[in-house]
Amino acid sequence: MKRNRPLNLEKRKAILKASIQEFYKNGFEGSSMDNISKEANVSKATVYNHFKNKEELFLEIANILKLRMDESFTYSYDKNQNIDNQLMDMARKELDFLSCEENITLIQIVTVVMIQKNDVGEKLLSQMSENCMLMASQWFEEAKKDNKLDFESSSFLSTQFIGMIKSFAFYPQLYGAPILSKKEGEEVIKAAVHMITSTYGK
C-alpha cells in the first residue's frame, strides 16, 4: 500500500497540471474530464478517483492559487526598519508573485469564471479574497500608529499602492503582454514607493 502513495500523488499532480492547460485553453464550460485524462496520461476512472467531478477539480485549482497568494503576501510592520525598505519589500513580494507565468495563468482561469458568475463563479467569489490588500491595509495602519505615514483610509492607500504595481505588472499581462524585466520591475517598485512616501510621509 505504501508503494502506491507516491504514484497516486504523481497522478494527482499530472491531473492538476493537465486540467490547468485544459481550463486555460477551453474555459470551464468547454473543458472535459476526457481531455484532462488524456492530457494527464491516466484513465478517466483515475481522474474520478481523485476528483468526483469537473467542478471539484476546478475549485481545487482555485484553492492552489489562493494558497499561493496567502503564502506570498505576509507583511509585518517593523518599527526598527526604514519605512522605504519595508515598502520596497512589500512591492517586491507583489511583483515576484505576478512575475510567475503559472500564477498569471491561474489568475486568468479563475477570473474568467468569476466574471461569468455561474454556480462555480459564485462559489469562487465567496472563497477568494485579495489577501495582499488586507495585509497591506494592516501594515499601513501600523505605519500610521508609528507616526510614519499620515492618511485617512488604509484601504484606499493599499489599493493605490498595490494597484500601481498591478497596472504595470499584471493587467497588461492578462492580455498577453510580456512579463516585466527585472530592471523594469525595479523601476515600478521605486515609483510606487516614492508615490507613497512623497504623498503620505511625515
Can you walk through the features of this model?
The protein folds into 2 domains: 1-52, Homeodomain-like (Arc Repressor Mutant, subunit A), CATH 1.10.10.60; 59-200, Tetracycline Repressor, domain 2, CATH 1.10.357. It is mostly helical. The chain starts with a helix and ends with a helix. Helix 1 (4-30) packs across helix 2 and helix 2 (33-40) packs across helix 3 (44-50). It has helices spanning 4-30, 33-40, 44-50, 54-72, 83-98, 101-116, 119-127, 131-145, 154-169, 171-174, 182-200. 77% of the residues lie in helices and 0% in strands. The radius of gyration is 20 Å and the shape is elongated. It contains 11 helices and no strands.
Highlighted features:
mainly alpha, 202 residues, Tetracycline Repressor, domain 2, 77% helix, Arc Repressor Mutant, subunit A
SSE blueprint:
Elements: H1 4-30, H2 33-40, H3 44-50, H4 54-72, H5 83-98, H6 101-116, H7 119-127, H8 131-145, H9 154-169, H10 171-174, H11 182-200
Short note summarizing the structure:
This protein has 202 residues and is mainly alpha-helical. It has two domains: 1-52, Homeodomain-like (Arc Repressor Mutant, subunit A); 59-200, Tetracycline Repressor, domain 2 (Orthogonal Bundle), CATH 1.10.357.10.
Radius of gyration: 20 Å
- Poorly predicted runs are none
Morphology: elongated
Query: What quaternary form is this?
Result: single chain
Q: Mind describing the biggest β-sheet?
A: none
In whole angstroms, the N-to-C terminal distance is 63 Å
Order of helices and strands: HHHHHHHHHHH
Tell me how many strands there are. 0
The portion of residues assigned to helices is: over 70%
CATH topology of the largest domain: Tetracycline Repressor, domain 2
How much is the average pLDDT? 88
- Tell me what the CATH architecture of the largest domain is: Orthogonal Bundle
Approximate strand percentage = under 5%
CATH-wise, what's the superfamily of the largest domain? Tetracycline Repressor, domain 2
Estimate nothing, just give the exact number of structural domains.
Answer: 2
Q: Structural class per helix/strand content?
A: mainly alpha
Q: What is the C-level CATH assignment of the largest domain?
A: Mainly Alpha
Number of helices: 11
